[in-house]
Every structure is written in structure tokens, then in C-alpha cells.
Design goal:
mainly beta; 10-stranded mixed beta sheet; 3-stranded antiparallel beta sheet; 1 helix; globular; L,D-TPase catalytic domain-containing protein; cell wall biogenesis/degradation; Transpep_catalytic_dom; transferase activity
Length: 167
């Protein structure tokens, strides 16, 4: 297992010899047990890297070793604590609140799904904590890097790797 290290206070991500700036949540970082839905906080801890979601036509899946799939119209991620599918991929539209994985900006052209609050999900303890592309501002609780940095890093990630978010 190789660890992607995120130093939240420094805004720095390190993987082997690669060092790059990163953005975290608008609420800063917080202990995982203090994480709440919608607080904008990036949860501290070590989170398994689960899979990659790619926007068709925006990124080529060259040399990706992690499980991956294309994002389709209607793909979403439940962010409603009342939803039985909370913090899981869902199809839109749906009766519960969910975030669309198709966005007008480029942030979700690449989504690396992190295993935060997913085994099993605890309602209200944070959903959709992703590693994605930066839009030049803090995230809603995710970790984000510039497109060029993500495209350099993505082929190096392997099943079993994890992201460790530190204060």
C-alpha cells in the first residue's frame, strides 16, 4: 500500500517524489468523528482509494490501474442523511437530495472516490468526500488538485492505496 499524504494546513499533497499544492474544504479540516454533512470540512484520517469516475470526452483513461468507469447522465451521489442510499452512488432524479456527478465546471472531470464513511455509511457524518480537480477555490470537503497534477498522479495509483489527510 502506498499513501497519498495531504497536509491540510500547508495545502500540500505528497505521493512519493511528487509534491503538489492542493485545496481542501472551505471549513478547513476536522476530526473524522466531528465531520457533519454540509459543514465544508475535510475529514482527517486515512481513507482507502476505492475507484475513479471519469467524464467522457474530458479525460482519457490511459494507464489507470484503479477500477474506473465513465460517468453517465443521471449519475449522482446521495448526500441526504434520510436516504437509505446515503453516501452511495445513485441515479437521478430521485426523491432524496443527491449531488449530480455531471457538472458545468471541470471539477468532476476526474473523481477519485475515497472510502470515507462508507463501511457502512453513518447518516449525517459526511458524504461524497472525493479527490477531484481544483477549481481554484476551497472545496465542499474534498481534496482537489490541478488537472495536470491529477493526470500525472492518476496512473501511479494502484488498488490498495490510500489517502491520509493530516492537520
Amino acid at each position: 500500500m502506498t499513501i497519498v499524504q495531504v497536509e491540510s494546513a500547508a495545502g500540500r499533497l505528497t505521493f512519493g517524489d511528487l509534491v503538489m499544492p492542493c485545496a481542501i474544504g472551505r471549513g478547513g479540516s476536522c476530526a473524522a468523528d466531528a465531520k457533519r454533512e454540509g459543514d465544508g470540512c475535510t475529514p482527517l484520517g486515512r481513507w482507502p482509494i476505492r475507484a475513479v469516475l471519469l467524464c467522457p470526452g474530458k479525460v482519457a483513461p490511459r494507464e489507470i490501474r484503479l477500477p474506473w468507469r465513465w460517468v453517465r447522465v443521471g449519475d449522482g451521489w446521495s448526500d441526504d442523511p434520510a436516504d437509505p442510499a446515503y453516501n452511495r452512488p445513485v441515479r437521478l432524479p430521485r426523491a432524496f437530495s443527491a449531488e449530480s456527478l455531471i457538472r458545468a465546471d471541470a471539477a468532476y472531470d476526474v473523481i477519485v472516490v475515497l472510502g470515507h464513511n462508507d463501511a457502512p455509511p453513518r447518516p449525517g457524518r459526511g458524504s461524497a468526500i472525493f479527490f477531484h480537480l481544483s477549481e481554484g477555490r476551497p472545496t465542499a470537503g474534498c481534496v482537489a488538485v490541478e488537472r495536470e497534477d491529477m493526470l500525472r498522479l492518476l496512473p501511479m495509483l494502484r488498488p490498495g492505496d490510500a489517502m491520509e489527510i493530516m492537520a
